[in-house]
Amino acid sequence: MNLKQYKKQLQESAWLLGICENGFDDLKSNRIHWIDNGKYEGKKWFADPFILEYNDERIILLVEEFDYKVHRGRIARLFVDRKSWEITDCKIILDLETHLSFPMIWREDNHIYVCPENYASGALNLYEYDKEGEFLTLIKPLIKKKLTDAILYKDETGYYILSTYIPTPNGKKLTVYHSVNFDGNYEEVQEVSFKENIARNAGKMFVYNGNLIRPAQVCNDSYGQALSFQEVKRDKDCLYSFKEKYRFLSPHLHYKIGSHTFNQHPNGMAVIDVKGWRYPIVGFLIKRIGNIFVKLGLKNAYRPQ
């Protein structure tokens, strides 16, 4: 391992999951059950969580799994015990040669579909989840573009995919696509511009107090530094507009440098992730030194891409 590789290892991030049993209300009140990684601690982290199902004993999640030895994202199924609040089992359900993340779950006609982010493939791909065998089967590409953290939404006018895309995934522009059919031909119908870098999705849209809410990532100073919860409106021409109603910063003592996913299950429970360092003290020092270099003009500041 050369010096550059060693420095990169010392700067590696780590993510932690949290459960809000009463959804968005619990998030706003910081009533969060932080999840212990159990036997996976120090070996891998989990992020981009979506709730597959839950009961009184356990919660089943689909997540991005990042093993420090493999060093790329894979899609995994997790079991979380609701008594110990610990991950008890992890099974990889999709592993490709390229990075996978954000396993967006969509339920349609008693089928469970997943659209993970895999922009290196050049498309947003639709998979079907086999609950018994616990694996994903590729169905087809939905949109042949390098979309990043795409979400699906359905109303009386059809199906919508909202997403940012490469080469500017963390910026100010959100693109909306529409199709009459779930797996049909999606066409671009709108591009929304924000004043801040809050275009990238942070999870699926959900209803709160009668209002449709879109979780989005705040990427002004760094990638996924906070969550922006935006009220969604549609005009008579079916065009979207978004207005931020709440901004969430991680309250965790050791994982406080970011939060970039919130997903609420149809039955009310929600899951989030928060970001820290793999080596907290070293990571913090390297970050502080980097900030000094930026102020001295010796290093470029973060630029959303």
CATH level-two architecture: 5 Propeller
Q: What's the CATH H-level superfamily name?
A: Glycosyl hydrolase domain, family 43
Using the alpha-carbon principal axes, give the shape: globular
Topology-level CATH name: Tachylectin-2, Chain A
Considering DSSP H and I runs of 4 or more, what fraction of the residues is helical?
under 10%
How much strand? over 45%
Q: List SSEs in N-to-C order.
A: HEHEEEEEEEEEEEEEEEEEEEH
Strand order of the largest sheet: 2-1-20-19
Structural class: mainly beta
Please give the number of β-strands.
20
Give a description of the structure.
- The chain is mainly beta and 305 residues long.
- It has one domain: Glycosyl hydrolase domain, family 43 (Tachylectin-2, Chain A), CATH 2.115.10.
- Helix content is 10%, strand content 51%.
- It has helices at residues 3-10, 24-28, 280-295; strands at residues 13-20, 33-34, 44-54, 58-67, 73-81, 86-94, 101-108, 111-117, 124-130, 135-143, 147-155, 158-165, 173-179, 187-193, 206-208, 211-218, 226-234, 240-248, 258-264, 270-277.
- It has a four-stranded antiparallel β-sheet.
- A hairpin with a 2-residue loop joins β15 (206-208) and β16 (211-218).
- The two termini are 29 Å apart.
- The model has no long low-confidence stretch (mean pLDDT 92).
